[in-house]
Amino acid sequence: MGQSPIDLPSRLLLNLEPWRHATHWRIAFSGGLDSTVLLHLLVTQAKTESLPPLSAIHIHHGLQAAADAWPEHCQSVCHALGIALQVERVTVQPEASLERAARDARYAAFSALTQANDVLLTGHHRDDQAETLLFRLLRGAGVRGLGGMPSQRPLGQGTLIRPLLDVSRAELEGYAQAHQLRWIEDPSNQDHQFSRNYLRHQVMPLLGNRWPQAQASMARSAAHLREAQGLLNELAQIDLAQAQTSHNLAWLGVPSLELAPLAVLSAARQRNALGCWLEPLTRLPDADHWSGWNTLRDATADASPVWRLADGELHRSAGRVWWLSGNWLRAPGNGADWQAPMSALRLADNGRVMFLGQNPSGPLRIAYRQGGEVMHLAERGSRDLKRLLNERAVPGFVRGRLPLLFRGDELLAVANLPGLDGQVHEGWTLQWQPTDEDQGLS
């Protein structure tokens, strides 16, 4: 049996108890039933409870003519409740799935607006959770996807909370009718070309007629699967701890894992650990594209395999796998002359270089490896640069980016490589910071 609408306020506050001391509670307010009830509940509770400051945000996607009137409706509701409303207009990128594109645009706006210790609240409910589980099941999702929507997750600098996931849509309708609330009915919600609408209007009613507790049971299954995913995450952390070993190229600032500890695991544990490691870095590949990992893992020792993913590339070199994205995937610009007494030299798409100690004399320039370079070492004579890089197991993706210091045609130093990075007897070494701190990178 569902709980009565009168229980909603206490259940809502119980679910929000851990965030009672947040700086700000912002309600994602579409104007529909779910967010209207959530907004009304919170405003009502704020009259008798000590809650963080409340406000609302409405995202205007501009996808249909009817939506142009919704900001005005939302403003009217918020004005009546004494709540500030922020309207954000977003541009939805054309994609195969309009639903996904709209969601991406919406959450990008939410993320940008959610500051440290802020909470964004959405009105997702138990029926939404059941639809999510069924939708993802039909798409062949794994345990992670079938866990449905989490009740909380990081968003921007703050947290996204879904406090109504244990509440049915029928309960929300009962509350809205009891309090004579007005809400928007989105015409697109009746368009069955959208998969979720088809499930909501065609499939879920049939399931409910045969199994009245279907939605509650499906939401409960999603909770079990989230728990299972939690256990898989714990296993992944155990496996990753073995692969996150120290190495002499940590100064690159590139995420990497030692390959050998991963390679001895079962294929399923490899995918589990690697998926956990990659999740904050890129959209994960579907099952059919994990063969790229097998190819990278099994390539011969002298190969330089690459696995291209949605937001970057995984490279294998020097016994490790390396995650490259951003500037690492762009060839660095041309080198530059070094005008003394400049303390540091910024490089196009390649961080900056500086001298530790005094500056060497003479007209200096920074360039990149072209092939055939030779370096004179006091104790070894002239040596081919390629051989010197091989001896130090410098990964292939680094070699074309290593700043080389020349005086005329003489190669004086290779940044950051001990023994090659300067002239100790002259009191200087060449240091390279691969990422530019001015771009917000460490």
TrEMBL record:
ATP binds at residues 30-35. InterPro entries: Lysidine-tRNA-synth_C (IPR012796), Rossmann-like_a/b/a_fold (IPR014729), TilS/TtcA_N (IPR011063), tRNA_Ile_lys_synt (IPR012094), tRNA_Ile_lys_synt_N (IPR012795), tRNA_Ile_lys_synt_subst-bd (IPR015262). The keyword Oxidoreductase does not apply. GO terms for biological process: tRNA modification. It is found in: Cytoplasm. GO terms for cellular component: cytoplasm. GO terms for molecular function: ATP binding; tRNA(Ile)-lysidine synthase activity. Residues 364-432 form the Lysidine-tRNA(Ile) synthetase C-terminal domain. Its EC number is 6.3.4.19. It catalyses: cytidine(34) in tRNA(Ile2) + L-lysine + ATP = lysidine(34) in tRNA(Ile2) + AMP + diphosphate + H(+). Belongs to the tRNA(Ile)-lysidine synthase family. The N-terminal region contains the highly conserved SGGXDS motif, predicted to be a P-loop motif involved in ATP binding. Ligates lysine onto the cytidine present at position 34 of the AUA codon-specific tRNA(Ile) that contains the anticodon CAU, in an ATP-dependent manner. Cytidine is converted to lysidine, thus changing the amino acid specificity of the tRNA from methionine to isoleucine. This is tRNA(Ile)-lysidine synthase. The lineage of its organism: Bacteria, Pseudomonadati, Pseudomonadota, Gammaproteobacteria, Pseudomonadales.
